[in-house]
Amino acid sequence: MLKRLESYYDSVPRSAARAEDFGPLTLFVREGAGWPYYARPALGHGGELTAAVVEKVRARQRELGVPEAFEWVAETTPGLRAAVEASGLVVHEHPLMVLTAEADADTVPAPPTDVTVRMVGPADPGLESAVAAPYAAFGATPTPGAAAQVAARIEAGLTRLAAAFDASGAALAAGQHQPVGPVTEVVGVGTRPDARRRGLGLAVTAALVADARAHGAETVFLSATDATVARLYARVGFRTVGTALIAEPAEQAG
Predict the structure, then answer these.
(1) Residue 102: pLDDT above 80?
(2) 107: pLDDT confidence band, cut at 50, 70 and 90?
């Protein structure tokens, strides 16, 4: 399973980013609007992972004006943690979870009656609001052109978007899954601060899972923020299979 996920991790950024080779590491640089990418272990590379290699990548990230971020799976590349920590980066641990069971209808509460959870198409009038909701969840605003880029990715079959809308048509929560062959990752699930504690994030996740299964996904996975959030995702059928690690400078993390 972890090998399958590693192949996915190497493939999925390539539809929206260029890859720069740093030997045992690959730096993905986003082209166009959207969340910036990161560096991660090069697929199949067995070279030594050192703080010096990490520093070369960080220097390039600073040159490009992108976040100094690294992402990897602890169990797949155990040697990278020591290298990034020696470089002065802070490492955050997140449960890596794979869908292994059907959600229990009794454990996934229905959304409030005044909220509609549905998939969002490229020409949907709610698209812009749905794209903006996760940005608001993380205290950010969408980059110019973000909605148009998501629409293009939906049309190309690279992204599937679900959102929870209130009666006025405004998105309160949203998230995506990004299929590559038989594997897809649920990403960017976020709820606006003024709509939290209503079960909307879980409802959006359940909608994404149902959509992924309906479109033939064999492996559906995600990374949870922490153990508390992981317990919520377990209600939708996810189980922890490893640890996703994210490294960044302390000031960037703050």
Answers:
(1) no
(2) low
Q: Provide the token pair at 252.
A: 């960037």
CA distance 34 to 16: 9
Does the predicted model carry a pTM greater than 0.90? Answer: yes
pLDDT at position 218, please? 95
Strands 219-223 and 183-191: parallel
Q: Considering only CA atoms, which of 14, 42, 6, 43 is closest in space to residue 30?
A: 14
Q: What angle do CA 21, 12, 69 make, to 5 degrees?
A: 55
CA dist list (Å): 163 to 140, 167, 169, 202, 205: 18, 13, 10, 11, 9
H/E element holding 2? helix 2-11
Please report which confidence band the pLDDT of residue 143 belongs to, taking 50, 70 and 90 as the band edges. Answer: confident
Exposure string over 76-108, b if 16+ CB within 10 A, otherwise e: bbeebbebbeebebebeebbbbbbeeebeeeeb
For residues 85 and 50, the answer to whether their CB atoms sit within 8 Å is: no
